[in-house]
Amino acid sequence: MLLMLTGLTANTQTANHFFPEKDLITTGIYYYPEQWDESQWERDIKKIADMGFEFVHVSEFAWFKMEPEEGKFDFAWLDKVINLCVKYNLKVIMCTPSATTPTWMRLNYPETFIMDGHYIRAENGTRGLESIVNPKYRMFVDKIVTEIAKRYGQNKNVIGWQIDNEPPAISDYSPSSQEAFRQWLKNKYKTIDALNAAWGTAFWSQWFSSFDQVVIPNTNLVGWWGNNPHALLDFKRYLADSQAEFLDFQADILRNFISKNQYITTNYTAVCTGADPRRTKKLDFASYTAYPNGGSDNIGELGFRLGNSKAILFAAEYYKSVGGVSGVMEMQPGPVNWGWYNPLLLPGAVRLWLYHSFAAGGKLACSYRFRQVLYSSEQYHSGIIQTDGVTLSPGGEEYMQFMKEIKDIRKQYKPTAKMPEKLAARSTAILWNLENYWSIDRQKQTNQWDAWNYPVKFLEMTKSLGAPTEVISETADFSKYKFRLFRLMNWLIQHW
Fold first, then answer.
1. I want to staple 328 with a disulfide (CB 3.0 to 4.6 A). Which of 79, 238, 357, 421 is the partner?
2. What is the tens place of the pLDDT at every residue in 455-470?
């Protein structure tokens, strides 16, 4: 479902008050003090400030450091880091560490991890494999988030909170998830007859006599073509609802302790096909991750060194539909270690992507990460500083150039400046519904159809006409708009 609406005039609640207009955009850096000897912390944080960064992003993967043993918390090390940031005039974005659980949890409470489509338990050692509907896991999350919020919720140097990390709404076939899915279905359909009618279970003898007979549809065991598409769509909805509720669960805990001047967000991936940011109710806004390379979807002959900036084109507008503002929370400054191709970026590529985000109205630009490590999982993933701990990477030099230029641009800021009436009159909105994407992508009539990039083509068209364009949901108040429905599906198919 995709509409183009003209005459967009709605006034929405936004999180703009967290970002002074005169600052235009603020820049920050990921720093992982738990990865480095304490003797290097002050040198690193001073370097971050000297380079021109304005905030430091910490603690998203440090649960083991904050709770080394069950129920025993240690924040003395983090206090030192925060105090160093204060010393060098750096603000802090604090993160909840729910994406990476400590080893003791997996060993003592294996039920807190997901099961894959073959009913095999996940292991610790990476991120995002926790069963977010498991009651025991929720209990541990409640405790660690409460402790962090109580300690830093009134710290004037902490400007915001990131919940979790790149929430994936990952498929989970564990007993906890099976029960949660059945409860989700009961809440939606009320009666088993209503579910049978909606899913069409009379076909292939799929009929259920009670909700207790329902199991999560599993393409791994039934086959891609064999599963009921209505059941799979509901599974997607359930996963997205569960992910959103989990984020809101943490936000509620934070709200009990934090200052009203601290915002709450999370960093979805730029192309996010599982989690639905609009399902959250308690975040102030949504941010996103965008990487210039790491795949094959690139632009031009040298695109493998430049990336496809259309990721920002869509994400920058899409994520504004949560809270009215957005920004890139995670952008790499060079090669990655996990992509189909991992080349050096073209000179200027990092700066180009930063300006893409800024031009699209981004309020913050944060880089993953300050230092490149010499060990563990992402040792070939670049940083602002190279492996010797002191030398700038090419991407680091471009970040410094961008930050210097932004400070110069701030001097030209005029609070009374307005968009030219000619452009404002072209104001346009694209209606985008993730559930329609799930449905279309599941049963598309040709594998050549790219359902995700369908609205991106509309954005390219409207932007090329100088039209300020927003991506909105079907819950928008259409009575405020004058709009036309353009039936362009046939045109797109003919010109694909």
1. 357
2. 888 888 888 888 888 8
